Each structure stands twice: as structure tokens, then as C-alpha cells.
Amino acid sequence: MTIEFSCPGCEKVLKTSDDKAGRRAKCPQCGEPITVPATQEPDLIDDGFEQFDAEITVPESESFLAGSDSPADVQCPMCGAANPHDALMCDYCGEVIQKSANQKWEPNQIKVAEVFSRSWQLYTEHLGLCVAVPFLASLLGGLAVAAIFFAGFAIVYATRDLFLNNGPLAVLMGGGGFLIFFIALVMILNYLEAGTQIVLLKIAFGEETELNDLFTGGRFVLRLILCGFVFQLVVGFGNMIFFMIGLFLSLLFWPYPYLLIDRDLPGIEAFTSSLDLTKKNLLSMMLVFLAIIGIPVLLGTGIVVGGFMLVEVLNVSPLPVILVGGIFVVIGFVFVYTFQLLVKAVAYRCMTRID
Asked: Which of 3, 284, 324, 331 has its CA 20 to 30 A from that of 263?
């Protein structure tokens, strides 16, 4: 049986089957949330009617709730509307529903205001993960640096007589040991970097994520190391010529780790795909990065000026002002740094959104 009713917002006539009574969905025309009304039982009247007509089914294309119970449908993570199983973006709100590494996509030109508004929305919704994941990665990275440093120092101290008595051999052994420790440290740091980017990308794309995803980036480590080396080499060479050239190269290739992880691309293809993304967005990304840099500068300036006014104008003791100011600097740095990381992931998401 078919239920036919009008949207209270735009008066569009909608149809759906009676088993959807009581369900809520957004109007496909105006987006107004609607509860499907229940069917009303008509009074029984004996008027000589003996046979029903064949039941009229609602075509799937005409029903805004048709097939919502089918396992093949995909539910939008933002507005909850049902979309076809192969939909990549929600037909009602435009949210990315699912991504396909093999899907042909055209790079989008981003809007700076959209990047920051979307980043702030996601940051407030996922504040715990946005702060905890980079903090834990930094903590583990710092512990790894300290552990490898002290391990190397302990080995050198324990074998100091061997090093002193063997001349060139000692230098060779020491160099080999340093190289092993350095490689181990680089692998650990890139492993944590990959995990951090996985979490931030999932947040940016509206996917479910958790703290354990920080430790799922193992298969990207070697490619991240090689691509990072090439990136630093190219940008460093550009800086040697002129710092603006280095900045330009950074803006061209900065999305390579996101492409490498999100689409599981080989290193070379990650760089070439970066050019496809950034060639339309050089000015926009320069504004994004200037804003990212400007936020901590303004924050630090405000804290310094405020502290100076308290000490010089209100004659407050300098020690408590320094202590309180230091606390604000640390807290501000943590939140600004973690927000910056999410902004980059959201900017990548906006550039690769499939239209």
C-alpha cells in the first residue's frame, strides 16, 4: 500500500510504501526532516464493492524512501539519507559517502572559507582524537629518540676500550652502529606519521576511526621514507636557489603523503597526482598555509602583549604572569598544532571530493 503526503516545508508531494510509516528522512527538494505519516483505516461501509484493483506499487525512482532497508543502499554519514549502493556523494547534502581508488576523479578548486569552517566543525566533533593522536605520536616519537640515543651512548661507553684501541676499525664500527640506529629511528617516526595521517584522513572523510588506527600505517612506511627524502631534496634544492622557489615547490607537492595513504599510490604517482591537485589551488593553499602560520603568531603576540600590560600597567608580579602565560602557550600550541594537522587533511579532502 502506498502513502502519499506533502512536505510541510515546500509542499512537494512524496510517496512511499506503508511499511515506512513513522520513519524520518529529509525531503529531497528542500531538506526538511519529515516523519512519514501513518495510514488511517477507513470506516467499513457496505456499498456493494466486491473486488480490489491490483495493488499499485510505487516506482523506486518516485519514492524518496524506496529501498532504504536494502543492504545494497548506502546511508549518508552526515544527514542519514539512503543513497544507491554505488553513490560516492550524498544526493541530498553532498557529503562524501565512500571513496574508490579506481574511480576517475577531477581535482576540485577549493575555497579557503570552506576548508576552515569544515575543519573547525570536525575538530570540535572529534576533539579527543584530534588532540590525543598527534600528542601520543609525538610522545612515542620523543621516547624513541631518547631510547635510541641512550642505547647508542650505552654501547659506546661499554665498548670504549675497543674503540680506543682499534683506530679506523672503531670509526667504521661506530659509523655502522649510528646508521643502524638512525634507520630504526626514521622508520619509527614515519610509522607514527602514517598512523596519524590515517586517523586525520578518516576524520576528514567522515569515516569511523579510533585511537588504534594510529598503529595501522606499517605498509606505508618505506614509501613515506623514500618520498619524504625526495620531497626534502627537491624543496631543499629550490631553497638553495631562492627561498620562493622552495616555497613554490612545497605548495606543488605537499599532498603526496595523503595521496600515498588515501589511494595507496606508488611514490612517483603520488608526486604526479599532487601536481594534478595543486595546479588549480596554488593561491588558495598559500592563503590556507598563511592562515595556519598566522594563527600561532597572533596567539603568541596576544599572550606577550597581555603579559606586558599586566606587569607594566597593573604592576602584577612577573613570576605568576610568566607561569600563567607559559601554561597558555603550551595549551594554545597543542590546540593550534592539532588543528593545523586537520586543516591539511580537510584541504586534501576538498580537493579530491568527487563531483
From this structure: 284
